[in-house]
Amino acid sequence: MTGILVLIPIALGLGLLGLGAFFWSLRSGQFEDLDGAALRILIDDEGPVDD
C-alpha cells in the first residue's frame, strides 16, 4: 500500500513533466516545418568529386 502512495505521485509528476515539455516544444516552434527535414535529405549540396 505504501508503494502505491509513492508511485502514484511519481507517475503523475512524470506525466505532467512530459506534458509540459510537449507544450514547451509547441510554443518554441519545434513542429513548424515537418516536411523540411524529410526533404532536406534529398538535396545534394556537394558538387561532383574530381578524381
From TrEMBL:
<dbReference type="InterPro" id="IPR004714">
    <property type="entry name" value="Cyt_oxidase_maturation_cbb3"/>
</dbReference>
<dbReference type="Pfam" id="PF03597">
    <property type="entry name" value="FixS"/>
</dbReference>
<feature type="transmembrane region" description="Helical">
    <location>
        <begin position="6"/>
        <end position="26"/>
    </location>
</feature>
<keyword id="KW-0472">Membrane</keyword>
<keyword id="KW-0812">Transmembrane</keyword>
<keyword id="KW-1133">Transmembrane helix</keyword>
<protein>
    <submittedName>
        <fullName>Cbb3-type cytochrome oxidase assembly protein CcoS</fullName>
    </submittedName>
</protein>
